[in-house]
Amino acid sequence: MNRKLLLYCCAVPLFLSGCAAPTLFTWGNYDQWLYENYKNPKNDEVLYADLSALISDYESRKNPQTKPLAPGLYAEYGFLLMRRGENKKAIEYYNKEKALWPESAVFMDHMIQVASINTGTADGGEIHE
Q1: What is the mean pLDDT of the chain?
Q2: InterPro entries, from UniProt (predicted)?
């Protein structure tokens, strides 16, 4: 009796672990990149290049069947742009995040305000070239 119970207790979790739900968003390898970046902050340029490639790939193949870009990826890319001093471009990506994920509007508005102060465009993120 104990062997059957032990076998059952071990087999069920193994069986259920193979039933992963399909993802709803396009993540790429973002989670691994983010982990490596937190472990070794010197990897900003690699993260920048990888996120840039992921976003370019996503935007080039965008069609009705394309899963939306995962929440936070545009914002993360915008933050990396701010760290590089490209605040006007960061505002563009914060606006993309806000458009794709309206629930992020309050935070994205704050980030746009911060980026605007640093670029001298304190008119709410509107960039006039």
Answers
A1: 77
A2: TPR_rpt, UCP020555_TPR-like
